[in-house]
Design a protein that fits this description.
alpha+beta; four-stranded antiparallel β-sheet
Length: 142
């Protein structure tokens, strides 16, 4: 028997947490699975949570886990199906999805050297397509 009754240990490291699956034996000889979640807490210390499942309860635990996993898979498929139906209904109502070639294009006039007003006019076209008109009268500072 190893340190602290550990018979077998495996670790799964994720982005922000780690999981340890430890098979242990207690002082009376009972074998159990200890699942430990460890994640970085505030400062230097880690938050640890653990669950112990004894060998005689393992089959019931696995049945519950399998049932939960099948529910998650079923729910995921239903959500994907609903999202696809919603997207299809939206495309049917509003037409096909617009692509980059279907989007509105804004053209600017080429400015010439002798026309100051044209240059000001074309530089004030916003991305929304709205145009701000500038007075064509020149102001004299006399």
């Amino acid at each position: 028997m190893a340190i602290r009754g550990e018979l077998y240990t495996t670790q799964i490291v994720l982005d922000n947490r780690s999981y340890f699956f430890n098979v242990k034996e207690n002082r009376t000889g009972d074998v159990f699975l200890q699942i430990v979640e460890s994640k970085k807490g505030e400062g230097v210390d880690f938050d640890r949570h653990q669950v112990a499942i004894f060998a005689e309860d393992m089959q019931k635990f696995l049945k519950g886990l399998e049932s939960s996993l099948s529910f998650i898979d079923k729910e995921k498929k239903e959500r994907a199906k609903k999202a696809a139906e919603k997207k299809a209904a939206k495309e049917a109502k509003y037409g096909r999805k617009s692509t980059s070639s279907d989007t509105k294009k804004v053209y600017k006039r080429k400015s010439t050297k002798d026309s100051e007003t044209e240059r000001v006019f074309t530089s004030q076209v916003k991305k929304t397509g709205r145009v701000h008109v500038v007075s064509k009268r020149k102001t004299d500072d006399k």
